[in-house]
Amino acid sequence: MNFYKSSLLIFSCFVISSFNLFGQVKEMDILSAKLFTELPDFCPTPDAFDIAPDGSLTLSCPNYADRAIPGVLVRVTKDGEVSKLIDVPILQETGMSKPMGIAYDDNGVLYVCDNQGNKGRILRMTFNKNTLINTEIIASGFNSINGIRYYKGAVYVTQTKLPKLKKEKVVGGVYRFKTSDRNIEVNNDKTDKNLIYTSITQNPNRQVGLDGLVFNKKGDLLVGNLGDATIYKLTLTLDGNVSNDEVYVKLPITAAPDGINIDLKGNLYVAGFAQNQIFKIDTNKKVTLLAQYPDNNGTNGALDQPADLIVYGDKLIISNFDLMVAKGMKNTKHSKPYTLSYINLKE
After folding, report:
1. CA–CA separation, 160 vs 145, rounded Å?
2. In a domain, 292, yes or no
3. What is the per-residue pLDDT across 165-209, written as a single tens digit (0 to 9) for each?
Protein backbone atom coordinates (compact mmCIF):
# COMPACT_ATOMS: atom_id res chain seq x y z
CA MET A 1 0.00 0.00 0.00
CA ASN A 2 1.47 3.35 -1.03
CA PHE A 3 1.02 6.36 1.22
CA TYR A 4 1.47 10.01 0.29
CA LYS A 5 1.72 13.14 2.33
CA SER A 6 -1.66 14.78 2.83
CA SER A 7 -2.67 18.21 4.04
CA LEU A 8 -5.93 19.38 5.55
CA LEU A 9 -8.30 20.94 3.07
CA ILE A 10 -11.66 22.42 3.99
CA PHE A 11 -14.44 21.87 1.52
CA SER A 12 -16.29 25.18 1.42
CA CYS A 13 -18.94 24.77 -1.22
CA PHE A 14 -22.40 26.00 -0.24
CA VAL A 15 -24.46 24.54 -3.06
CA ILE A 16 -24.39 20.88 -4.09
CA SER A 17 -26.45 18.86 -6.48
CA SER A 18 -28.51 15.91 -5.28
CA PHE A 19 -29.50 13.01 -7.46
CA ASN A 20 -32.33 10.52 -7.48
CA LEU A 21 -32.93 7.26 -9.27
CA PHE A 22 -34.29 9.06 -12.33
CA GLY A 23 -31.48 11.59 -12.65
CA GLN A 24 -33.41 14.62 -11.38
CA VAL A 25 -31.31 17.35 -9.78
CA LYS A 26 -32.09 19.65 -6.91
CA GLU A 27 -29.91 22.34 -5.36
CA MET A 28 -29.45 22.50 -1.59
CA ASP A 29 -27.20 23.90 1.10
CA ILE A 30 -24.49 21.54 2.34
CA LEU A 31 -24.42 20.28 5.92
CA SER A 32 -20.92 20.32 7.37
CA ALA A 33 -19.54 17.46 9.43
CA LYS A 34 -18.15 18.32 12.86
CA LEU A 35 -15.95 16.54 15.38
CA PHE A 36 -17.88 14.26 17.75
CA THR A 37 -14.81 12.87 19.50
CA GLU A 38 -11.18 11.93 19.02
CA LEU A 39 -10.34 8.28 19.59
CA PRO A 40 -7.40 6.91 21.61
CA ASP A 41 -4.38 5.15 20.17
CA PHE A 42 -5.96 1.71 20.66
CA CYS A 43 -8.55 2.56 17.98
CA PRO A 44 -6.67 3.72 14.84
CA THR A 45 -9.25 2.28 12.40
CA PRO A 46 -12.82 2.75 13.69
CA ASP A 47 -15.50 0.87 11.79
CA ALA A 48 -19.07 -0.07 12.80
CA PHE A 49 -21.66 1.09 15.35
CA ASP A 50 -24.65 -0.09 17.30
CA ILE A 51 -26.53 1.33 20.26
CA ALA A 52 -25.89 -0.59 23.49
CA PRO A 53 -28.62 -1.47 26.03
CA ASP A 54 -27.48 1.40 28.29
CA GLY A 55 -27.91 3.93 25.46
CA SER A 56 -24.21 4.43 24.76
CA LEU A 57 -22.63 3.64 21.41
CA THR A 58 -20.58 0.52 20.85
CA LEU A 59 -17.90 0.95 18.18
CA SER A 60 -15.80 -1.77 16.56
CA CYS A 61 -12.12 -1.16 15.81
CA PRO A 62 -10.52 -3.90 13.68
CA ASN A 63 -7.24 -1.97 13.77
CA TYR A 64 -5.88 -3.08 10.43
CA ALA A 65 -3.58 -0.06 10.54
CA ASP A 66 -1.46 -1.61 13.30
CA ARG A 67 -1.25 -5.40 13.59
CA ALA A 68 0.32 -5.05 17.03
CA ILE A 69 -2.96 -3.65 18.38
CA PRO A 70 -5.74 -6.18 19.05
CA GLY A 71 -9.22 -5.69 17.69
CA VAL A 72 -11.30 -3.89 20.29
CA LEU A 73 -14.82 -2.79 21.05
CA VAL A 74 -15.14 0.75 22.36
CA ARG A 75 -17.83 2.44 24.45
CA VAL A 76 -18.75 6.00 23.47
CA THR A 77 -21.16 8.04 25.58
CA LYS A 78 -23.60 10.66 24.33
CA ASP A 79 -21.08 13.28 25.44
CA GLY A 80 -18.32 11.69 23.38
CA GLU A 81 -16.41 10.11 26.26
CA VAL A 82 -14.48 7.06 25.05
CA SER A 83 -13.39 3.95 26.93
CA LYS A 84 -12.35 0.47 25.93
CA LEU A 85 -15.15 -2.04 26.36
CA ILE A 86 -13.17 -5.23 25.59
CA ASP A 87 -10.35 -6.69 23.57
CA VAL A 88 -12.22 -9.03 21.22
CA PRO A 89 -11.27 -12.68 21.88
CA ILE A 90 -8.68 -13.79 19.36
CA LEU A 91 -8.78 -16.73 17.00
CA GLN A 92 -6.01 -19.00 18.28
CA GLU A 93 -5.02 -20.04 14.76
CA THR A 94 -4.21 -16.47 13.73
CA GLY A 95 -3.60 -14.81 17.09
CA MET A 96 -5.85 -11.94 15.98
CA SER A 97 -9.35 -10.55 16.10
CA LYS A 98 -10.67 -8.06 13.55
CA PRO A 99 -14.18 -6.90 14.57
CA MET A 100 -16.15 -5.10 11.88
CA GLY A 101 -19.97 -5.19 11.71
CA ILE A 102 -21.74 -5.40 15.09
CA ALA A 103 -25.40 -5.77 16.13
CA TYR A 104 -27.27 -6.12 19.41
CA ASP A 105 -30.35 -8.33 19.70
CA ASP A 106 -33.46 -7.60 21.76
CA ASN A 107 -31.84 -9.10 24.87
CA GLY A 108 -28.63 -7.08 24.67
CA VAL A 109 -26.51 -9.92 23.27
CA LEU A 110 -23.91 -8.62 20.82
CA TYR A 111 -23.07 -10.25 17.48
CA VAL A 112 -19.71 -9.40 15.90
CA CYS A 113 -18.30 -9.97 12.42
CA ASP A 114 -14.68 -10.97 13.00
CA ASN A 115 -13.17 -10.43 9.54
CA GLN A 116 -9.96 -12.44 9.17
CA GLY A 117 -9.76 -13.27 5.48
CA ASN A 118 -10.98 -16.83 4.92
CA LYS A 119 -11.14 -17.48 8.66
CA GLY A 120 -13.88 -14.97 9.48
CA ARG A 121 -16.31 -15.65 12.33
CA ILE A 122 -19.63 -14.49 13.72
CA LEU A 123 -19.18 -14.14 17.47
CA ARG A 124 -22.06 -14.13 19.96
CA MET A 125 -21.07 -12.13 23.06
CA THR A 126 -23.07 -12.08 26.28
CA PHE A 127 -22.44 -9.21 28.69
CA ASN A 128 -23.37 -8.36 32.26
CA LYS A 129 -23.50 -4.60 31.95
CA ASN A 130 -20.05 -3.86 30.47
CA THR A 131 -18.40 -7.13 31.49
CA LEU A 132 -18.06 -9.91 28.91
CA ILE A 133 -19.47 -13.13 30.36
CA ASN A 134 -19.36 -15.54 27.44
CA THR A 135 -18.34 -15.75 23.78
CA GLU A 136 -19.78 -18.33 21.39
CA ILE A 137 -19.31 -18.90 17.67
CA ILE A 138 -22.37 -18.78 15.44
CA ALA A 139 -20.48 -19.59 12.24
CA SER A 140 -16.94 -19.53 10.87
CA GLY A 141 -14.93 -19.91 7.68
CA PHE A 142 -16.13 -16.69 6.03
CA ASN A 143 -14.00 -15.23 3.27
CA SER A 144 -14.82 -11.54 3.73
CA ILE A 145 -17.53 -11.07 6.36
CA ASN A 146 -18.44 -7.43 6.84
CA GLY A 147 -21.84 -6.02 7.89
CA ILE A 148 -24.43 -7.51 10.25
CA ARG A 149 -28.01 -6.76 11.36
CA TYR A 150 -30.31 -8.49 13.83
CA TYR A 151 -33.97 -9.03 12.93
CA LYS A 152 -36.58 -11.27 14.59
CA GLY A 153 -34.40 -14.00 16.00
CA ALA A 154 -31.78 -14.04 13.25
CA VAL A 155 -28.67 -12.21 12.12
CA TYR A 156 -28.07 -11.20 8.51
CA VAL A 157 -24.48 -10.71 7.36
CA THR A 158 -22.79 -9.57 4.16
CA GLN A 159 -19.75 -10.93 2.39
CA THR A 160 -18.10 -8.54 -0.04
CA LYS A 161 -16.77 -11.39 -2.18
CA LEU A 162 -17.29 -15.11 -2.64
CA PRO A 163 -14.25 -16.21 -4.68
CA LYS A 164 -15.58 -19.71 -5.33
CA LEU A 165 -18.50 -18.16 -7.24
CA LYS A 166 -16.42 -15.63 -9.14
CA LYS A 167 -15.94 -16.06 -12.86
CA GLU A 168 -15.23 -12.79 -14.63
CA LYS A 169 -16.81 -10.62 -11.92
CA VAL A 170 -17.01 -10.53 -8.13
CA VAL A 171 -20.02 -12.09 -6.39
CA GLY A 172 -21.13 -10.79 -2.99
CA GLY A 173 -23.63 -12.44 -0.68
CA VAL A 174 -26.02 -12.17 2.26
CA TYR A 175 -26.18 -14.93 4.88
CA ARG A 176 -28.85 -15.55 7.51
CA PHE A 177 -28.32 -17.40 10.78
CA LYS A 178 -30.65 -18.04 13.68
CA THR A 179 -29.31 -16.69 16.95
CA SER A 180 -29.55 -20.24 18.28
CA ASP A 181 -27.14 -21.56 15.60
CA ARG A 182 -23.68 -22.60 16.78
CA ASN A 183 -20.41 -23.61 15.13
CA ILE A 184 -21.63 -23.69 11.53
CA GLU A 185 -18.78 -23.98 9.03
CA VAL A 186 -19.48 -22.14 5.79
CA ASN A 187 -18.12 -23.06 2.37
CA ASN A 188 -18.57 -19.62 0.75
CA ASP A 189 -20.54 -21.07 -2.14
CA LYS A 190 -24.05 -22.15 -3.13
CA THR A 191 -23.83 -25.27 -0.94
CA ASP A 192 -24.27 -23.00 2.10
CA LYS A 193 -27.91 -23.30 3.15
CA ASN A 194 -27.58 -20.03 5.05
CA LEU A 195 -26.65 -18.09 1.90
CA ILE A 196 -29.92 -16.37 0.96
CA TYR A 197 -28.85 -13.84 -1.68
CA THR A 198 -26.03 -13.11 -4.12
CA SER A 199 -25.21 -10.11 -6.29
CA ILE A 200 -22.70 -9.79 -9.15
CA THR A 201 -20.74 -6.54 -9.25
CA GLN A 202 -20.75 -5.13 -12.77
CA ASN A 203 -18.41 -2.14 -12.30
CA PRO A 204 -15.02 -3.22 -13.74
CA ASN A 205 -13.25 -0.39 -11.93
CA ARG A 206 -14.30 -1.47 -8.42
CA GLN A 207 -14.80 -5.20 -8.10
CA VAL A 208 -16.20 -5.26 -4.56
CA GLY A 209 -19.58 -6.69 -3.61
CA LEU A 210 -22.24 -6.36 -0.89
CA ASP A 211 -21.36 -4.38 2.22
CA GLY A 212 -23.72 -2.19 4.30
CA LEU A 213 -27.24 -3.30 5.21
CA VAL A 214 -30.22 -2.19 7.30
CA PHE A 215 -33.86 -3.17 7.86
CA ASN A 216 -36.76 -0.79 7.38
CA LYS A 217 -39.94 -0.84 9.48
CA LYS A 218 -41.68 -3.17 7.03
CA GLY A 219 -38.95 -5.76 7.42
CA ASP A 220 -37.40 -5.19 3.99
CA LEU A 221 -33.63 -5.60 3.96
CA LEU A 222 -31.78 -2.77 2.22
CA VAL A 223 -28.27 -3.76 1.21
CA GLY A 224 -25.59 -1.85 -0.68
CA ASN A 225 -23.28 -3.06 -3.43
CA LEU A 226 -20.09 -1.07 -2.85
CA GLY A 227 -18.66 -1.55 -6.33
CA ASP A 228 -21.84 -0.75 -8.28
CA ALA A 229 -22.98 2.04 -5.90
CA THR A 230 -26.44 0.45 -5.84
CA ILE A 231 -28.83 -0.07 -2.93
CA TYR A 232 -31.07 -3.13 -3.30
CA LYS A 233 -34.32 -3.80 -1.48
CA LEU A 234 -34.81 -7.45 -0.54
CA THR A 235 -38.30 -8.65 0.39
CA LEU A 236 -38.15 -11.53 2.84
CA THR A 237 -40.51 -14.41 3.56
CA LEU A 238 -41.52 -15.32 7.12
CA ASP A 239 -38.69 -17.85 7.28
CA GLY A 240 -36.13 -15.26 6.18
CA ASN A 241 -35.62 -16.20 2.54
CA VAL A 242 -35.57 -13.63 -0.26
CA SER A 243 -38.81 -13.59 -2.24
CA ASN A 244 -38.03 -10.52 -4.34
CA ASP A 245 -35.14 -8.17 -5.02
CA GLU A 246 -35.17 -4.81 -6.75
CA VAL A 247 -32.96 -1.78 -7.19
CA TYR A 248 -33.99 0.72 -4.53
CA VAL A 249 -31.69 3.51 -5.66
CA LYS A 250 -28.49 4.11 -7.59
CA LEU A 251 -25.85 6.47 -6.23
CA PRO A 252 -23.11 8.14 -8.29
CA ILE A 253 -20.86 5.29 -9.43
CA THR A 254 -17.83 6.80 -7.63
CA ALA A 255 -19.55 6.78 -4.23
CA ALA A 256 -18.63 3.27 -2.96
CA PRO A 257 -21.47 2.99 -0.40
CA ASP A 258 -20.31 1.36 2.82
CA GLY A 259 -22.33 1.66 6.06
CA ILE A 260 -26.09 2.25 5.83
CA ASN A 261 -28.45 3.41 8.58
CA ILE A 262 -32.08 4.52 8.80
CA ASP A 263 -34.06 7.00 10.89
CA LEU A 264 -37.56 6.68 12.34
CA LYS A 265 -39.10 8.32 9.28
CA GLY A 266 -37.52 5.79 6.92
CA ASN A 267 -34.79 8.03 5.53
CA LEU A 268 -31.57 6.19 4.69
CA TYR A 269 -28.10 7.54 5.36
CA VAL A 270 -25.13 6.12 3.47
CA ALA A 271 -21.38 6.48 3.99
CA GLY A 272 -19.62 7.19 0.68
CA PHE A 273 -16.35 5.43 1.46
CA ALA A 274 -14.35 6.37 -1.63
CA GLN A 275 -15.11 10.09 -1.96
CA ASN A 276 -15.53 11.22 1.69
CA GLN A 277 -19.27 11.65 1.23
CA ILE A 278 -22.49 11.24 3.19
CA PHE A 279 -25.78 10.70 1.34
CA LYS A 280 -29.38 10.88 2.48
CA ILE A 281 -32.07 8.92 0.63
CA ASP A 282 -35.63 9.91 1.53
CA THR A 283 -38.71 7.71 1.27
CA ASN A 284 -39.35 9.04 -2.25
CA LYS A 285 -35.89 7.72 -3.24
CA LYS A 286 -34.50 11.21 -3.69
CA VAL A 287 -30.76 11.19 -3.01
CA THR A 288 -29.14 14.21 -1.38
CA LEU A 289 -25.43 14.71 -0.84
CA LEU A 290 -25.18 16.00 2.73
CA ALA A 291 -21.43 16.41 2.96
CA GLN A 292 -18.26 15.87 0.94
CA TYR A 293 -14.59 16.49 1.67
CA PRO A 294 -11.35 16.26 -0.29
CA ASP A 295 -8.41 14.28 1.10
CA ASN A 296 -7.60 15.43 4.63
CA ASN A 297 -6.37 14.16 8.01
CA GLY A 298 -9.71 14.32 9.84
CA THR A 299 -8.97 17.40 11.94
CA ASN A 300 -12.10 19.14 13.31
CA GLY A 301 -14.32 16.27 12.19
CA ALA A 302 -13.65 16.46 8.45
CA LEU A 303 -14.83 13.27 6.76
CA ASP A 304 -11.80 11.01 6.30
CA GLN A 305 -12.90 7.81 4.51
CA PRO A 306 -16.24 7.32 6.30
CA ALA A 307 -16.99 3.64 6.83
CA ASP A 308 -20.13 3.54 8.96
CA LEU A 309 -22.75 5.82 10.44
CA ILE A 310 -25.64 5.67 12.86
CA VAL A 311 -28.60 7.87 13.73
CA TYR A 312 -28.03 8.74 17.40
CA GLY A 313 -30.61 11.14 18.78
CA ASP A 314 -30.51 14.25 16.60
CA LYS A 315 -27.03 13.46 15.30
CA LEU A 316 -25.65 11.27 12.56
CA ILE A 317 -22.43 9.80 14.01
CA ILE A 318 -19.80 8.77 11.45
CA SER A 319 -16.64 6.64 11.77
CA ASN A 320 -13.57 7.66 9.78
CA PHE A 321 -11.69 4.53 8.69
CA ASP A 322 -8.86 6.50 7.02
CA LEU A 323 -6.80 3.55 5.80
CA MET A 324 -7.44 2.22 2.31
CA VAL A 325 -5.48 3.78 -0.54
CA ALA A 326 -6.52 2.78 -4.05
CA LYS A 327 -7.43 4.17 -7.43
CA GLY A 328 -10.65 6.18 -7.24
CA MET A 329 -10.38 6.91 -3.51
CA LYS A 330 -9.72 10.32 -2.02
CA ASN A 331 -7.70 8.91 0.87
CA THR A 332 -3.91 8.96 0.38
CA LYS A 333 -2.56 7.93 3.81
CA HIS A 334 -3.45 6.82 7.30
CA SER A 335 -2.74 9.35 10.04
CA LYS A 336 -3.85 10.88 13.31
CA PRO A 337 -6.19 12.10 14.59
CA TYR A 338 -8.47 9.05 14.81
CA THR A 339 -11.97 10.48 14.85
CA LEU A 340 -15.71 10.16 14.86
CA SER A 341 -17.58 12.94 13.05
CA TYR A 342 -21.20 14.01 13.22
CA ILE A 343 -23.81 15.83 11.20
CA ASN A 344 -26.58 17.65 13.07
CA LEU A 345 -29.81 16.28 11.57
CA LYS A 346 -31.84 19.18 12.93
CA GLU A 347 -30.04 21.79 10.85
Report:
1. 7
2. yes
3. 988 999 999 999 999 999 999 999 999 999 999 999 999 999 999
